[in-house]
Amino acid sequence: MEKEKVITAKDLTKRFGDFTAVDKITFDVTKGEIFGFIGANGAGKTTAMRMLCGLSLPTSGEATVAGFDVYKQNEQIKKNIGYMSQRFSLYEDLTIRENIRFYAGIYGLADELIKEKTALLLKQLHMEGQENTLVRAMPLGWRQKLAFSIAIVHDPAIVFLDEPTGGVDPITRREFWGLIYEASEKGITIFVTTHYMDEAEYCNRVSIMVDGRIDALDSPANLMTQYASASMDGVFLQLARKAVRTGD
Amino acid sequence: MKQFLIFVKKEWLHIWRDRRTLFILLFMPVIQIVLYGFALTNEVKNSKVAIFDQSKDEATTVISNEIAASRYFNLVKNVYSYKDIEATFRKGEIRMAIVFPAGFRYDLLHSNHAQIQLIADASDPNTANTLTNYASSIINDYQQTLHPTEDLPYTIKTQVRMLYNPELKGAYNFVPGVMALVLMLVCAMMTSIAIVKEKEMGTMEVILVSPLRPFRIIIAKTIPYLLVSMLNITSILLLSVYALDVPIVGNLWLLIAESILFTITSLSVGILISNSAKTQQTAMFTSMMSLFLPTLLFAGFMFPIENMPIPLQIISNIVPAKWYFIIVKDVMIKGLGFTAVWKETLILISMTAALLGISIYKFKIRLA
Amino acid sequence: MALNGISFAVEKGEIFGIIGPDGAGKTSLFRILTTLLLADSGSASVDGFNVVKDYKQIRNHVGYMPGRFSLYQDLSVQENLEFFATIFNTSIQENYDLVKEIYQQIEPFKTRKAGQLSGGMKQKLALCCALIHKPSVLFLDEPTTGVDAVSRKEFWEMLFRLKAQGITILVSTPYMDEASLCDRVALIQKGSLLSINTPTSIIREFKKPLWSVRADEMFKLMNELKNDPLIESCYPFGQVHHVVFKTQANSKEKLEHLTKQGNYNHVEVKPIEPGIEDCFMALMKE
Fold it and tell me: Which residue from A12, B90, B134, C240 puts its CA 20 to 30 A from C142's CA?
């Protein structure tokens, strides 16, 4: 059975002057899939992700996200995706409840629904009774989990996660991945970048970018067989060592 | 010493590579001076005046004609009563009125002193001041022509009445004022931002874990800004002399020495601010709030300190710009020597010593 | 509280790792040791000097690379290095041998502004600057955070070469896999030390047998194992789950029974050696 495609990219390219940041990448992501997007610093991950989020126009090629065209329908794209990054996600000087309210409000959720969602979300994260805590006062791991839950509060088709687990302790990191699996079971597509290679193994499929191109794309198990390596770390090192580019 | 020099060089590179800020630093004073100067000369050309001549004799006619012929004035009407003057002012038709009392020429020739009243709209004090100065000089010229060789046995006493702002300051106030303002801002704001920037970028952490001593860091940070400020002093002085015709009456070197002293005071204020600020934004804000406004308010070039309530007058004493402003006015405009300004100089020196002492003492040799 | 009653000693010439997540207190610890922060209580010395009394001597003798890129972004590579050499009363020439290998990799870009370098190159430059005065102790606060796997590997190779030159290195990292590269590690969590030892000894302290389990339905499997009363912990590790039982008797049979009962496909169960991450999580739970 052909699964519904949520992201399609065909020969997607981005050039800055004579520098080709993303060089004809082609791939599909299906509904509910956990898609790992791996690459060395400067391989073009961020640029590719920006194009898919509707933040940056491609130089050439085609791409659709949640069925919308990245050239013409970036406003619709933004309504149908969630985004979370390690660097910025929550307002530290607002409380948990205010953060939820704010983000849900941005996506135009009705007040009733926001209330319902807030209660559900707090229950899921075992944070009941703490809704008036300032985000600043929460441990990093909790903040990251909260940020993820907020990024999918409007039930987007896809959620983009940019190095979501950096610096988090190993248990929290696994709890975080628990949330990712849950979201994926609900049919939300997960598009995730990470520097932790064991996390790459949690993904259904992984694409590895080298010098702006996708050099490998398959399930972690197949990649490990193909590159005769016991871990994704080995696969990645083999591929990334070929890189010529060193720029960020 | 090498340590110190490389720090100065590094600091200079920061300034040099940030062209936009350097441009602002160097051109802010020029633009301010030109703006003030332009506004000033533009305002006094063809200013509308009215004459209330109660004497109508030969002397008043000559003076009236001189005034009407002057490029500074435009005689718009003759009025016939004080009430008329008031009304004309209120309608905004004139900026100054000249009142000759009855029997002007008679008084001039017989009682040796005649009076002319100049009534100016001093809601714009600089303009009012300039206008009355010009009018006074025309009247003086007339006196000279009456008795070119003699020692003026007859005197015309111009009686100036400033409406709306009786304590009006001198015409060249703004040059010393802008000097004080610009030096304070450039030095204090820029040094505080420069030091806080290192904290914010995390470089201070690395610098602290090095053999560099706080005293050297501070001094090295301020030297490039001292140089930039010297350029500013030069450009301000050149502009005021050649573009605005504000002469340097007193000793140029004394003026420069005092300016360097004030620059160092301002640099110390900047260092002090940087000690308590954590981000460049805070540094900028603190400088703005604690320097720009007080300097503007309390230096004495915008608002007369004598008219302020006593508490504010007392506060004005801790504003370094006030003392520098007095010094510049005395030296540059009035042409007085060091003997006239030694007290103010001493105050500035003690302020600087105190500020620098506190900043170095308080300089954090550790984080947080 | 950032740090709570920490005691440890680092031997001359070893690579000592401080391993723990963000917020564990790694940076505070480094700042206390590099004389940037004062401890509320307790004492510490570096290279024989007290961190409070003799802070000036320590500042002459240690190299410090903070977690955040802390060089002058508007100065070129060469200007940065020259600046740091000079403020430490030395010159690039004097200690060139020490940084040569690292510096050669960034030398082609020596006129480029530091702010325009890539992450990996910035990190190399920062290391050069921290090394240029030939410090006796090198403090590296999370040098590999946010750096890709290839650059991380290269960075560690550089550290081994520095160690060979007799420099003591204290390095902190949130990446558990880097622990095995250190001579000794301190595992730190919420300001307290969980354990200090060589990586192999830490692993040896993990007494309970560890099982690796995999099946096609990984998420379902994890939820079931986690909720099983017999099982102490079940964590995903890449393609497999690592499972520890509360009591060890017949654990293999129990595990096989559990997985078969749940109708999973392609079940694979085998005993495995624990890694540092397994140990860290076990210690965190205690």
Answer: C240
Number of helices and strands in chain B (H, E): 16, 5
**Where in chain B are the domains?**
2-41+170-362, 47-163
The band of B155, judged by pLDDT with boundaries at 50, 70 and 90, is low
Q: Average pLDDT, stretch B229-246?
A: 84
ipTM score:
0.81
Are C174 and A168 an interchain contact pair (Cβ–Cβ within 8 Å)? yes
* B36: pLDDT strictly greater than 70: no
What residues of chain B, 160 to 179, have a C-beta less than 8 Å from chain C?
none
The per-residue pLDDT for B167 is 36
Does CATH number 3.90.1150.10 belong to domain B47-163? no
CA distance B346 to C148: 61
Dump pLDDT digits (tens) for A153-191: 999 999 999 888 887 888 888 989 989 999 998 999 999
Of A39-43, A81-85, B18-22, the least confident? A39-43
Q: What are the structural domain ranges in chain A? A: 1-80+158-248, 90-155
**Ranges A42-51, B104-113, C137-146: which has the least confidence:** B104-113
Say if residue B140's pLDDT is above 80.
Answer: no
Residue A2 is given by DSSP the state P
The answer to whether C86 contacts B6, with C-beta atoms less than 8 Å apart, is yes
Interface check A33 vs C, CB under 8 A: no
Classify domain A1-80+158-248 by CATH architecture.
3-Layer(aba) Sandwich (3.40)
- Partner-chain residue, chosen from B2, B209, B367, that has the shortest CB–CB distance to C86: B2
CB spacing of C21 vs A169 below 8 angstroms: yes
Contact yes or no for C179/C278 (Cβ under 8 A): no
Please, which residues bridge with residue A192 across strands? A36, A161
